[in-house]
Amino acid sequence: MLKILFILSFVHFVHCVEDPNLCNRTEISIMKNVKGEAIEIRRMITECCPGFGMSESSCKPVCANGCFRGRCIKPDKCGCYPGWKGNSCEEACSPGYYGPNCINKCLCKNNASCSPTTGDCTCTKDWKGKLCDIPSSNNSYIYNCSINIECQNEENALV
């Protein structure tokens, strides 16, 4: 006499647990024994939630296209390092912008260049100061004056 064991198996996702990147799922198998009685077997499985993958014994977000100059902060969402922007952090900041994702506007004055990572200004030769807004001693716009005399600027205009 041939005895057949009937097995029906399906998976039911329950919810994410304390760690929002981990999900519990219950695997339920229903089998019939040789007497035809249904037997239910439940097995709890913990795994990374959709959009996350196992890395160094914890679930980390996964960015399908990678983050070239940044890191994956949410599923398919990169947080770019200072000086970079774009979906995969592949684009350098446009002139006049700096910082992570290039969201900060440079405050440099008088044609000074701005560091795309820090926003620090590199002044041209005629300017100094944190924002390059203070004339330097060799600035052609500083007046040629000596004490107690009438002054003229470089364009010979009286001041």
TrEMBL record:
Q: Where is the signal peptide?
A: 1-16
| Parts forming coiled coils | none
Keywords (alphabetical) are:
EGF-like domain, Signal
Q: Which domain of life is it from?
A: Eukaryota
- Which GO MF terms are attached to this record? scavenger receptor activity
Under the heading InterPro entries, the entry gives:
EGF, EGF_PEAR1L-like, Growth_fac_rcpt_cys_sf, MEGF10/SREC1/2-like
**Keyword Signal among UniProt keywords:** yes
Q: Where in this chain does the record put each EGF-like domain?
A: 121-132
Q: What is this protein called?
A: EGF-like domain-containing protein
Give the source species.
Trichonephila inaurata madagascariensis
